[in-house]
Amino acid sequence: MKWTVSDVDMYEKEKQYIDTALLPLVQLTLSNATKTAVAGGELVQLLASEVERQLKGRLFLLPPFTYFLTETKEECVKRLNVWTDELKKSGMAHVFYLTSDRMWNETELGGKLFVLPSIPLEHMDEVYQQQMVREQTSKLLSSFISHWT
């Protein structure tokens, strides 16, 4: 389920079956590293959407947790853990984070971290993009399922 009115209606009716929140972690900057940050965020959101499509009814894809490159890691971790606590209070037994930023460390977080390789999509042939998305999605699905069991 996505963060849309129609999916929230479904979520409210089926809340007892939806126990996992998927939270993309997306870095923001308007400095020299803008293009790198955008590429990483684009990939993360593309894969998060594909995972949501395949796990609709079990997983709730939330809007991205965004943070500035200039924020300290401690500030980001603190804010993210506040979000995680709120999600868990709301009934989410599992909180999965999806990012391409290697700054994050799972031991500091209240959920399960999945770090993707940073792959720039802009110069990639569309057929290869689709293949890469399928492969990464398959790996993520396997990881999610093993975490649930």
Q: How are the secondary structure elements laid out?
A:
Elements: H1 5-14, E1 20-28, H2 34-54, E2 59-61, E3 65-68, H3 73-89, E4 94-99, E5 112-115, H4 126-148
Parallel strand pairs: 1-2, 1-3, 1-4, 4-5
Helix pairs in contact: 2-4
InterPro entries: DUF2487 (IPR019615)
Organism: Anoxybacteroides rupiense
Protein name: YpiF family protein
Unreliable parts: none
Report the structural category.
Answer: alpha/beta
Percent of sequence in beta strands: 15-25%
Number of strands: 5
Summarize the amount of helix as a percent range.
40-55%
| CATH C-level | Alpha Beta
Using only C-alpha atoms, the radius of gyration works out to: 15 Å
Q: What is the CATH architecture term?
A: 3-Layer(aba) Sandwich
Structure characterization notes:
The chain is α/β, with parallel strands linked by helices. The chain has one domain: Rossmann fold. 48% of the residues lie in helices and 17% in strands. It has 4 helices and 5 strands; from the N terminus they run αβαββαββα. It has helices at 5-14, 34-54, 73-89, 126-148, and strands at 20-28, 59-61, 65-68, 94-99, 112-115. Strand 1 (20-28), helix 2 (34-54) and strand 2 (59-61) form a beta-alpha-beta unit. Helix 2 packs across helix 4. This is YpiF family protein.
Notable traits:
5-stranded parallel beta sheet, Rossmann fold, globular, 149 residues
Q: What's this entry about, in short?
A:
With 149 residues, the protein is α/β, with parallel strands linked by helices. The protein has helices at 5-14, 34-54, 73-89, 126-148; strands at residues 20-28, 59-61, 65-68, 94-99, 112-115.
